[in-house]
Amino acid sequence: MKRLTRVDYTILGSLSEARKSGYGIQKEFEQSALFSYSSSSPGTIYPAIKRLIKLELIGTWIPPRFDKKSGQELNISSKGLARLNEWLVQPVHINDVRSNMPELILRYALMDKLVNDEKKIEFLQSLLTELEGYMEILKQEHKMCHDLLSVTKRQAMESIIIIFQGYIDWTKKTLRSFA
Q1: φ, ψ for residue 111, nearest 5 deg
Q2: CA 78 vs CA 7, 56, 63: distances in Å
Q3: Domain boundaries along the sequence of the chain
């Protein structure tokens, strides 16, 4: 099974909501804060669309009133929907938290109508566990290296701790919304 990129999954997620043209997808990437985690350049999006068509994860649909200006529309296939769902609910690991938080937030955002509440809660609980584990690592590192770091490096480290505390707070708040 060919590994898909974040752009591929973002396109699949976009098409899971409604059929769109390639131009419509590009506009969505440019205008949505959620999709800003993926490249919005046509040089990235259109090759990804071609790859997804070749893999039969998306298909083309020609509207009844087809004209060259509006073009053909793209839709997600059942195979594409299955791949998207697998990606959305895969377990969260500490390395994801350490280097891929934007992708984790994107995964949660795309779960909306695709994943039941039980799976959303499971994802969030897994995310919280890994975030809290990583926060302990950050705090220990900050404490151990505090006197060894320059002022600016120490301040940068403190900003990272604040950012991850924000992720923890958001995850807890989001979990409470399911109660």
Answers
A1: -70, -20
A2: 19, 9, 20
A3: 6-89, 96-176
Question: In terms of pTM, does the model score above 0.85?
Answer: yes
Q: 6-89 has which fold?
A: Arc Repressor Mutant, subunit A (1.10.10)
Phi (first) and psi of residue 56, to 5 degrees: 65, 30
Q: Which two tokens stand for residue 18?
A: 């409604």
**CA 78 from chain center: how many Å?**
20
pLDDT tens string 113-162: 999 999 999 999 999 999 999 999 999 999 998 888 899 999 999 999 99
Angstrom CA distances, 164 to 12, 19, 116, 133, stand at: 28, 36, 26, 11
Structure tokens at 165: 């505390």
